[in-house]
């Protein structure tokens, strides 16, 4: 596919001032970031002003694993943005710029960070792009939080990750990269972050300097952090409701959803099959869902386990059930959950943090979390968990919004805008 505005060489190092940047004066991003392509007016969709693709040349990024049947691939316009590559390396990312990104009257720009199995387009600009399953409701709007904030004078950007279920440690480095580009474009010192769902993990990992051994530490450039339906206290939904969850994943059962399974084996229509490529834990040489594993924490001590589900005990605690087999949640947590490391590292006290939860467990197309108050996926207690967060600016539950509606619900958008102001 044709790529607009290809830049062949890495950009030069930034021209720093004593304070790190001069307000209103643009400079070049760090030398390890290469602008590879830029798509502007007439070539972008969903109301964005432009979309750019960058490459982080730092050693350590890899091309993560993708399910072989294509369910995790980049799709739609994103394939064009990624240069015709449906499975890009995790060192590549998209930076979306909203109308008014360089003219809005609000001083501090906003970076929106999407969640699992999502894109910046569907998450923030066109919730109806994927239909009701994508927006969480029967009727989906064609605009989202991007337009809401942009129309109110905010300078809005969004990051697009290479891997929809990728490693949050690598994606945290990408969050830092996106901030570095925004600072260089606008000549500002700080950015506000909004992390939705899994996006909470990468935003918190960035500001907390929870990183790979080769990664860069937090650069002190975030003013406010807003988590939206974020599993701040972790989640255990796939293990607590594994049987119902698996039917949407396992291909022999008709499943096509790009999500991990708590099981390594399952019986569908009398056929007992293995699918290590869909496993939550590394299995058979596959590890396609590290980002989901990193969000896990046990809630059985608070809300129990769904005892009505088939093979409920072995699904949660591990072992061979009647129809399924798996290692259980504790083995998955041991394979790399980031919940405790994030709690232990803590958000810097200089960052004012706001936590938004949904209170409606009515997500279309899934078995909704019903063991306790939730947004259908994440417990309210988890979304509002302040462990490791010393400076709390506010906590709020939007009772009428489920997990997928939180990014576009009018009450949620108004609350986010209030916190950003």
Textual characterization of the structure:
24% of the residues lie in helices and 17% in strands. It has 421 residues and is an alpha/beta fold. The strands form two sheets. A nine-stranded mixed sheet has the order 1-2-3-5-4-6-7-12-13, sandwiched between helices. The chain has a four-stranded antiparallel sheet with strand order 9-8-11-10. The chain is globular and about 65 Å long.
What's the short version?
The protein is of the alpha/beta class and 421 residues long.
- List segments where confidence is low: pLDDT < 50 over at least 5 consecutive residues: 1-22
Structural class, from helix and strand content?
alpha/beta
- Span between N and C termini? 41 Å
Give the strand tally. 13
Question: In one word, what is the shape?
Answer: globular
Count of alpha and pi helical runs = 15
User: Can you write the helix and strand succession as a string?
Assistant: EEHEEHHHEHEHEHHEEHHHEEHHEHEH
Residue fraction in strands: 15-25%
Give the fraction of residues assigned to helices: 10-25%
Report the average pLDDT across residues.
92
| Major beta sheet summary | 9 strands, mixed
Q: Give the neighbour order of strands across the main sheet.
A: 1-2-3-5-4-6-7-12-13
Radius of gyration: 20 Å
Features:
421 residues; alpha/beta; nine-stranded mixed β-sheet; four-stranded antiparallel β-sheet
Ordered list of secondary-structure elements with their pairings:
Blueprint: E1 33-39, E2 50-56, H1 77-81, E3 92-97, E4 110-113, H2 120-125, H3 132-135, H4 145-150, E5 156-161, H5 168-186, E6 191-196, H6 199-207, E7 222-228, H7 237-240, H8 242-247, E8 265-268, E9 271-274, H9 290-293, H10 300-303, H11 312-317, E10 319-320, E11 324-326, H12 329-334, H13 339-345, E12 352-358, H14 380-383, E13 392-398, H15 410-420
Parallel strand pairs: 4-5, 4-6, 6-7, 7-12, 12-13
Antiparallel strand pairs: 1-2, 2-3, 3-5, 8-9, 8-11, 10-11
